[in-house]
Write a structure and sequence with these properties.
The protein has eleven helices and four strands. By secondary structure, the chain is mainly alpha-helical. The chain has a four-stranded mixed beta sheet, with helices on both faces.
């Protein structure tokens, strides 16, 4: 007999892994700063750091405080109707009571595909949006499983967590770009009286790290996104106490094939990581995927 998984253990393990991954991104940021400071004049490097931090944090804060509005506008969603979408409201009310969270604002987007997403900087400013396909094709338990998953993103403050990740990745990318551009305009051969060959080696190391660091940081960010999906699955089970609801919803998502023209206008690719599954159905797996393998998610839910 297969060993049953504990949703509490799954939640704890995935949260720990997420913290470790974001610590890895922060480490990349510090190492990149150390490498660049070893090459450039400290005062020049300080200017780069200040500019990158102000720019990236300012840009992300705007997106963070308007995340719900941006997501809803991008998805072209409309407010849900308490009469026309009664089951949606019932599922959200039940999961709001189960989680102890305020009732989120509910929206519906036109799409025959089964999907949903949550956004908002905190539970008081949260929104949940589902597709018309989800409302049409999911039964009561499956819809509750999907809503529980999205409520879990809200309860776990995933938008806040992913915003911090985006800030760090953004700063790494900006610093790396400014450093690479600065090499064309600065004369570093005599900056600290180093031997020319030593300086060349340092520059080559710096260039290599500046190119690879943003890529690696972005891959780590995608890994965090996948871990947060596993955490939301497990937390959703904690709310419903019925793993089969979400598992069966994922099975229906796996088996559907939405029209290509619908996928193109469903939403922007930047919003895709928010959804319970990739709305573009891209054949991307492993390190470059925004979502965990759906078969693995179903397997874990069946084992709970």
């Amino acid at each position: 007999m297969a060993q049953r998984l504990s949703f509490e253990d799954e939640i704890r393990k995935n949260k720990i892994k997420s913290v470790l991954l974001i610590s890895a991104i922060f480490t990349f940021f510090l190492v990149l700063g150390f490498v660049i400071s070893a090459i450039l004049d400290p005062s020049y490097f300080f200017i780069i750091m200040v500019f990158s931090i102000i720019f990236s944090i300012g840009y992300i804060i705007f997106g963070y405080y308007n995340s719900d509005k941006i997501a809803i506008a991008s998805a072209r969603a409309k407010p849900a109707s308490n009469t026309a979408h009664r089951e949606f409201f019932h599922a959200a009310e039940n999961m709001s009571l189960a989680s102890g969270l305020p009732m989120p604002r509910l929206y519906v987007m036109e799409s025959s595909g089964i999907n949903a997403f949550a956004s908002g900087r905190d539970p008081r400013h949260a929104v949940i949006c589902v597709t018309t396909g989800a409302l049409k094709n999911l039964n009561k338990h499956e819809l509750e499983g999907v809503i529980a998953h999205e409520m879990s993103h809200i309860a776990n403050y995933d938008i806040r967590f992913m915003t911090l990740t985006a800030v760090l990745v953004g700063m790494i990318s900006i610093i790396a770009e400014l450093f690479l551009r600065s090499l064309w305009f600065s004369n570093m051969g005599d900056s600290r009286g180093r031997d020319g060959r030593v300086q060349i080696v340092l520059i080559l190391i710096g260039v290599m790290f500046a190119i690879l660091a943003p890529l690696v940081a972005n891959l780590v960010s995608l890994a965090i996104s996948r871990k947060r999906e596993y955490t939301a699955d497990a937390t959703g089970v904690k709310l419903t106490r019925y793993p089969s609801g979400l598992a069966n919803a994922l099975r229906k998502i796996k088996s559907e094939h939405p029209p290509a023209k619908e996928v193109r206008h469903i939403t922007s690719k930047a919003l895709a990581p928010l959804f319970i599954s990739d709305p573009f159905k891209r054949k991307i797996s492993g390190l470059f995927a925004t979502h965990p393998d759906i078969n693995e998610r179903i397997k874990r839910l069946d084992a709970m």
